[in-house]
Amino acid sequence: MLKFLSVLLFLFAFCAQAQRLEVRGIVYEDLNKNGIQEPGELGIPNVVVSNQINTALTNQNGLFKLPSHSDQEIIFISQPTGYSGNYFQPTSDHLQFPLIKHSSSSSFSFIHASDTHIDSLNLPRMNRFREMVDSIGVNFVIITGDLIRDALRVSEITAANYYLMYQAEMSKFNIPVYSVPGNHELFGIERGKSMVSDQHPLYGKKMFQYFLGPNYYSFNYGGMHFIALDGVNYQDQWYYGGIDDDQLTWLGQDLKHVSEKTPIITFNHIPFVSAGFTFQSFEPQDFYGPQLMTHQDKLAHRHIVYNFDEVQQLLDDRPYPLALSGHYHAAQENTIQGSATLFAQTAAITRPDSFDYNGFKMRSGFTLYQVNNGIIVHHAFVPLNLPD
């Protein structure tokens, strides 16, 4: 039944309408927080809206229009500083984005977590994580992929149940949570194990989009611009680290609306730069497949983003203090001489609570960041301390 319903809902939400030439809508301040625009609730100007390729700004009345490339599009806004609310919707005849205004400060804190790998055995760890988030008192949480136990190698009903479990766990947070996909969110691509056809309507990244929305987007907070990137791609049955062409096109469009003086923080799953890459095997593995793959005539390792240089070119000389990622389940930090960027991978929330990592003792946990006037003034790793 779940299989039938998931496919039916996907088709209804994304495919049931005739092809549009453009998408229109409004972004407005929802004064009474009921999600319905009423008299006196005015549109918000200069909000960036996107269909994951093109971008547009809302006019003085909060109205926007975008070209439409597909009836399977997700439309999202780049949340402006000082506002919160649902930032994405499936395309429809007239979209409405109600936002709630709140106090804003250039001094704030957030938590970077990763690799939650939600399943029933990890629910106690998620409870512990939420308790710690509440006790620390941060403004929002970023989770850099591998959100669920697995979708690569399992059936639709198993993968969908993991996604539903993740949705349920995120709904328990009292603050915004911003997620990006990891390799384990790719549905069914290891077809020899999942027995899923590549023609399945939720195949690959579409299951993530169905349950959790856009796989890349941006938002603004405290005078900084946060860019959520999808650093995982796939070729035939194997995933690899890479930013695809559509995403690079969108990134260039997104940055056109951001002052060159605004600090940028990126977050994605597979890292751009990693000391832990030193320990990666280059030998093919029977279960996990090849470690090296060819992309654009260049041989590259699967567990590092092979085309980070293209992201760098788009960021140019903008202030870029922090690049967040996960994937290795091991907290580590990397700097390169001449660069002001800290490339930081945090640990995993998932079990085990501690493990040996090539002779290093690794702990499960997350990283706390404190920001003041666009500068990372403090950061610290916080262990979960929940023995298995």
Give structural notes.
This protein has a 6-stranded mixed β-sheet, with no helix packed on it. The chain is α/β, with parallel strands linked by helices and 388 residues long. The protein has helices at residues 2-15, 123-136, 156-170, 191-194, 206-212, 245-255, 308-315; strands at residues 22-29, 48-50, 55-57, 63-67, 74-78, 83-84, 88-90, 95-101, 107-113, 140-144, 177-180, 217-221, 224-228, 232-235, 238-241, 264-267, 292-295, 298-301, 322-325, 332-334, 342-345, 354-357, 360-363, 365-372, 375-383. It folds into 2 domains: 2-101, Immunoglobulins (Immunoglobulin-like, Sandwich), CATH 2.60.40.10; 107-383, Purple Acid Phosphatase, chain A, domain 2 (4-Layer Sandwich), CATH 3.60.21. It has 7 helices and 25 strands.
